[in-house]
Every structure is written in structure tokens, then in C-alpha cells.
Amino acid sequence: MDMKFTELLQQMLETELGGVKIYRTAIECAINPDLRNEWTHYLEQTQRHVEVVQEIMAKVGIGPELTPGSAIVKHIGQSLIIAMNKAKGGDPAAAELVACECVVFAETKDHLNWQLLSKCAEVAPGDIAEVLAKAVDEVEDQEDEHLYHSKGWCRELWIQALGMEAVLPPPEEQQNVKSAAAAAKAEQGRKKVPASA
Fold this sequence. Notes:
This protein is mostly helical. The chain has a single domain (about 5-165), classed as Ferritin (Up-down Bundle), CATH 1.20.1260. The protein is about 80% helix and about 0% strand.
């Protein structure tokens, strides 16, 4: 396989392994029970995503070696955990917001990884294309949800922190958004959604 494809898979593995740790730490910071439940669900899915990436790597004959790029991904994940742990010592609402931002940072990279893997599936030879397409079919919608729902939570928690009326859970959650277009529509229509009590 191409070296860049190998690099992508190595980075995907580190992103997912880091994601497990990021969600565990973020859950400790969550004070909103709906957000804590959502992140607990995402943690379970991310644990499965680790397995999916490991299965892909085994099927295409790539080991879990740390590359310069995946080492950077690992470092970024560790930095996000450090940031959340620092925030836990202060105001709980501020720590929850920091955790939400960290989740959005991590999920942005994760989402990109799966988009790229989907593109690889379109051009890979036979059996490999099938392995990649099957993995993408299992995971990509979940990654869309992780990113767009977390961005909605982050926006609404900031609105709340700024003393304005927030919509919690956010419209992205209420509308089960799984695309950029649907996320934009949910955000534009957020004022039409009554705030929860």
C-alpha cells in the first residue's frame, strides 16, 4: 500500500485511541446530564471505532507503528486531555465548556479521517475497497453525529456562558443532524426552538 495511505491509517488509530481518553476525561467535566449521556454514548462508539481501524489495518497488512504524523496526533490528543484536567480545578461550567471545545477539536480531525478513508475506498483495488467501504458504512454517520452535535453543544454552552438564552440540548441533537447542511439549517433555526426549562 501507498505510504500516505499507511500514514492515514496510523493517524486514524491514534485519533480513535486518543478519542477514547478524551471522552473519558470530557465525561468527568460534563455537568449537563444530557451532554454526559451523549458523550458516554460517543465513548462506546469510539471504542468500537478503535476496533474497526485495527481490523482494517490487520486486513491490509499494516501494523500499529507510531509514525511522525501519528505521534503528532497522539501529542495533540494528550494536550486536549491536559487542558480538560486543568479546567477541572476551576468553575464547573467553564470546565464543561473547555471539555466541549476539546471534543470538537478532536472530532474535527476524526471526521476528516473518515472522509479521507471514504475517498480511499472509491479508488482502492477490489478487496481493499470492500474492506474500507464496509468500515466507512459502519462509522461515518456516527462521526458526522459526533462532530455536528458536539459543535451545537459547544455553541449553546457558550451562549449560556455569555448570559443569553441557550437551547439545550441543541437543535442538532433534537433534530438528529448528520450532515453539514442539516447542521447549518439547525443552527439557523435555533431561535425557533423553545429553550428547555
